[in-house]
Amino acid sequence: MKLKVNGEDRDVDVPADVPLLWVLREELGLTGTKFGCGRALCGACTVHVDGAARRSCVVAVGDVAGQAITTIEGLGSDEKLHPLQAAWVEHNVPQCGYCQPGQLMMAAALVRKHPQPSDAQIDAVMSGSICRCGTYPRIRKAIHAVAGTPTGAPESGES
Amino acid sequence: MAIKRVGAIALTVAEWIGVVVFVLVLLVVLVVAILLGWVGDPPPDLGTRGQAAAAAVPTVDRKPPKPSAEEAASLFAPVYEVLVSPRCMNCHPDGDRPLSDTGVHAMNVSRTSFNSGLACSTCHAEHNTEFPGGPPGPPGAPHWQLPPEQTPMVFQNRTVTALCKQLRDPAQNGERTLADLLDHVEKDPLVLWGWNPGGDRTPPPISHAAFVTHMRAWVDAGGICPGEKVAPVLGPEAETDTDTGTTGG
Amino acid sequence: MSEPQAKRKGVGRRRFLLTMLAGTGALVVCGAVRGGAEQLSRAEPSDIDGAFKPNAFITITPDNRVLFALTKAEMGQGVMTGMAMLVAEELEVAVDSIEVFFADSLPKYSAIDTHGTGGSASIVGGFVSLRQVAAAARTMLIAAAAQKWGVAASDLRAEQGRVVEAAGTRSAAYGELVDLARDQEVPQEPVIKQREDFAVIGKPVPRIDSRVKVTGTAEFGIDLRVANMTRAVMIHPPRPGETVISFDAAEAKGMAGVIDVVQTPRGVGVVAEKYWQAQRAAASVTVEWSTTVGDFSTEVLRAELEASKRANARVVRDDGDVDTAMSGTVIEAVYEAPFLAHAPMEPLNALAHVVDDTCEIWAGNQGPGLLQEAVARALDIKRTNVLVHTPYLGGSFGRRSHPDAVLEAAWLSKAVGRPVQVIWSRENDTRAGYYRPQCHTRMRAALVDGTVTAMTADAQSQSIMADLDMGALMPVAIPPRIRKWVMGNASRLIASNAVLADVLATEGISNHGYAVANQRVTYTPFATPFKCSWWRSVGHSFNGFIVESFIDELAHMAEEDPVAFRRGMLAERPRWLAVLNAVAEMSGWGKTELAEGTGRGVAVVEAFGSFAAQVVEARVEHGEIKVDRVFCALDCGIAVNPDLVAAQIEGSVIFGLTAALWGEITAQQGRVQQGNFDTYRMMRMHESPEIQIELLDGPHEPGGVGEPAVAPVAGALANAVYAAVGVRLRRMPLQRAYDEWSARQGTPKA
Fold first, then answer.
1. Can you tell me the distance from the alpha carbon of B147 to that of B127, in angstroms, rounded to the nearest whole number?
2. CB contact burial B53-81 (16+ within 10 A = b; e otherwise)
3. Of C20, C185, C750, the CB nearest to B60
4. CATH number among 3.30.365.10, 3.40.50.300, 3.40.462.20, 3.40.50.2300, domain C13-214
């Protein structure tokens, strides 16, 4: 099966009904996308498919073959952080950090739609993502902090 | 270097003293306890008899308004019973938030979410999510969504009459004719999913075939609603119903 | 930067040793003993040729790298940054220039503490000892430069990774001094800075683990990879305590990627090349379970505790003459709290590789020694043949101090002869036990002219300590059978509530700050098929709720303002008073009016050496309890990193509110009724209140930070609900208590 992940063409040999999450983690070694619940209840596994946020734990890999998949590894890099990632660092957002890749992918989907999101819009989008450490106040602050900075550039691999 | 070595030895000696003290204290405590016969069996497990159910309180009143005798006898009544079942009403809520079978949808999702980067399709696929061996995932069907904000097609908190009039009104139903509506309920995969919802989800009260039959009878009668002797003329030229029959909520 | 001040009074190597010998220090020593067999080990990042290693923790290389071996679990609390700050402070290097790595479970790392993480004690314990470790390195580098230049050490100082001559212009980078430094005498009493000289401590230094956590490159246990590894899914008993009688895996064994299906003492493990293969195969395995504890019910437990005569009660505290003083207006109230799961976002997992009589483990944990002991016993191998690598922890809150997932991985690896990574599903994680204890506590008090003259607490809760096996805390020199026997009996002693007692069960209730002349506290433990565990703030997690709710009830009964009433009872407790006054001030208590239907509740506690007071603003909307704002004043002594302390308070408030509002693990017919986040509800962004924080800057040494602010939340919330709607909720979770109250009133919601 042909996948397009973070701008690269990747070949995987798995049945079509394997969750995308485990293909990313175990077949492609992209472990930034996290397993939290397996039922789309926590948001830790959020990736973008053709620019839209998806919970990869409930996406069958066969349903997204050929579509542009972006994971946290493709959002920004250590050399060039995505503005949200930079804001996360600036505001000391992460605690244990496990949910943060999913939070960031979700926030990235939000700021593409609304570069200056309101609190209501943040609540409407980010409430799908659980943080057990309770970093919500800082996530909110960090999202507000990037308001207005260009964050809507196409992701690597999106056409 | 010599001092360093001496220091290390001293440290080791001190550590061993610690060990001995620790072990001695423990042993003394144990021996005393055993001698005094205090080390009995641990207390028996509690809570291992019978059971009691925890009280459950519904979080949202989803019960549709009670129909009048005239409404109950109307041609639209069996159609209405299907529309207010969870399979249909969950995505035709009174407001911007989809419902779940027991209340409102979790996670604070609303039309605001859908317009802000969290679409239904973030979690719901075009089919139910059921991976071999995996826990049950979210339900899904093609174009899983709420009706558009401009024509929200609210089923919740509507009387039989109000829902009947709303359904046939092109201004409220997205410019659909009665034939379009029949086609929608007959063929739309999202509607069909309702009768094959998977998991422990309850399907509507009557079969899909029976539902289509009732719907067709209502359409053939011109979309007549309770209290009407004859069906009104429908379409862009016709006067639209303004009474939505909202019961509050 | 000024020269480090003269040594702190009474601090030095001697204190080092004394600390180690005293109290929990005894445990430290045991772990540190270097007798017996060689410890299994692997190369570590600090194994660098030509480097200067004044001790196990600090490594300085010729090319000026500074490495620090972190012996604490980084589970979100920020200990990696906090400890790097302590090192940076004394070593005079930039915090972000220190390469921190996670220390393996080697004896050399037990020299300053247990290498375990918990009790909000890492910074508390390392504040002096870790700075001494770094100061020793600095002293030796300065001595090396003094030797090199032929000057007195007192004419030199360290700054920004260099030794600098005070008067002259000479300076040398640490890297240039490593060869000479190696030969310097190790200072017996390293001189550490006085508070007024701190340049790093007290500053809001950015977390050093943020970058890897926002780019997805931080490696948690679940992310680890080793050659030839396999993955496993565990089929756990549907009811706690059940064991496998037989199982049928014929179909599973024929499925793609499946290596084996193995019976273990904790259920059946399905081992495959990939997780998804193991998951598919597990669905086709059928297991016959023993049914020894089939009908356990938490509702029945509640009824039994209510009816209990507490025959086994132990008096924990008895001041004055309670029986005589308990007269006049006597108020009685029963408070309850349920079992709770920890629910870290990273489900429990462990990777183990058993080769002959050795076992290597990679798993997030709060105590490598505990894992070594458990695995050694389970596999009947030497503890020194077990090596534990600790990665980042995706949350823990106490849960990862238990070795269950690790044992499963070890058994399965031994069976299949390859490394096995066990990954629990969320349902596994929620249902596997080690819960915060369920409890039932009856409070009574006498009020005379608005003064509390007598107070009693009769606490019943499952004992955490009786459920623990502390064999890991005994020296490896003692044979394993004796370790097991001693500790097994220690647990029985604690369970018997006679010779040893579980002091955690009544923490916060036997030592609250309120002045009451006549007081008695009793504790009665009980057992259930569940195991119990530390859960962020431990006994305080329910006792904070109980004491603070009851004091509030007494205040209302005395017709006094809850803050004023507390002030009166805390007159002799300056640190309690200070946080109480601070939180009253910042929340506008008694000054600013709240909207109709919104109430304020207050609570104040001491926990883990710190003092926390909170005011919660809450209301009830359509039957749902909503929290608008939370104010918290914390006195944790010196806040090593105020911004990370604030982050811990924010997290504690949200963690505490989650439990207070919705958290409960219930069992019916032995089955846990919660499984995933749809049934075990977590607070989400839109429910998260505005949180305002004030840190009180006091002269005290650091107190705990990760847990104290959890303790007051539930009580303050219950008190706020009472203020808002006049309903006293005495049972957690409060939303259920409110629902049951509304159901009794017959008022429908919404």
1. 19
2. eeeeeebbebebbebeeebeebbbbbbbb
3. C750
4. 3.30.365.10
Note whether C425 contacts A: Cβ–Cβ < 8 A: yes
Nearest-neighbour CA in chain A from C36: distance (Å):
37
Same fold for the pair C13-214 and C439-464+502-745: yes
pLDDT at A159: 38
SS3 content of chain B, % helix, strand, coil (to 5): 40, 0, 60
How do the domains of chain C map onto residue ranges? 13-214, 221-292+348-423, 439-464+502-745
The pLDDT, as a whole number, for residue C301 is 95
CB contact under 8 A, A134 and C688: yes
C partners (3+ CB pairs within 8 A) are: A, B
Centre a 10 Å sphere on the Cβ of residue C732 and count the other Cβ atoms it contains: 28
Q: Which of A95-99, C43-47, C466-470, C719-723 has the lowest mean pLDDT?
A: C466-470
Considering the entire predicted model, what is its pTM?
0.92
In DSSP notation, C635-650 reads E-SS-SSHHHHHHHHH
Residue C479 phi/psi, 5-degree rounding, is: -60, 145
Distance, CA of A130 to CA of A140 (rounded, Å): 13
**Where does the pLDDT of residue B5 fall: very low under 50, low under 70, confident under 90, or very high at 90 and above?**
low
CA distances from C169 to B93, C151, C262 (A): 78, 13, 70
Are the beta carbons of C30 and B22 separated by less than 8 Å?
A: yes
Nearest-CB residue to A124 (from B106, B113, B136)? B113
Chain segment C563-572, per-residue pLDDT in tens: 999 999 999 9
Say which of C493, C668, C749 has its CB closest to residue B51: C668
The helix/strand/coil state of C464 is coil
User: pLDDT per residue over C374-400, tens digit each?
Assistant: 999 999 999 999 999 999 999 999 999
Q: Which residues contact C670 (CB under 8 A, 6 or more apart)?
A: C238, C239, C240, C242, C293, C294, C295, C296, C297, C529
How far does the CA of residue C186 sit from the closest CA of chain B (Å)? 7
Overall average pLDDT of the C194-207 stretch: 96
Per CATH, the homologous superfamily of domain A83-145 is [2Fe-2S]-binding domain (1.10.150.120)
pLDDT tens for each residue of C498-546: 767 788 999 999 999 999 999 999 999 999 999 999 999 999 999 999 9
* C703-712 burial: b if 16+ Cβ within 10 Å, else e: bbbbbbbbbb
Q: Which of C528, C661, C688 to mutate to test the interface with B (most CBs of B within 10 A)?
A: C528
Residue A93 near chain C (CB below 8 Å): yes
Which residue in C75, C210, C653 is closest to A134 by CB distance? C653
B122-150 burial, b at 16+ Cβ within 10 Å, e below that, comes to bbbbebbbbbbbbbbbbbbbeebbbbeee
CATH number of the C221-292+348-423 domain:
3.30.365.10
Please tell us whether the domain made up of A2-75 is placed in CATH 3.10.20.30.
yes
| Domain locations in chain A as residue ranges | 2-75, 83-145
Range C439-464+502-745: architecture per CATH: 2-Layer Sandwich (3.30)
How much is the pLDDT for C423? 98
A113 to B117: CB separation less than 8 angstroms, yes or no = yes
Check CB contact of A114 with chain B, cutoff 8 Å. yes
Q: What is the pLDDT of residue C371?
A: 94
> Predicted ipTM?
0.96
- pLDDT confidence tier of residue B235, bands split at 50, 70 and 90: low
- Tens-digit pLDDT profile for residues C103-138: 999 989 987 667 889 999 999 999 999 999 999 999
Give the closest-approach CA distance of A130 to chain B in angstroms: 9
Does A92 touch chain C if contact means CB atoms closer than 8 Å?
A: yes
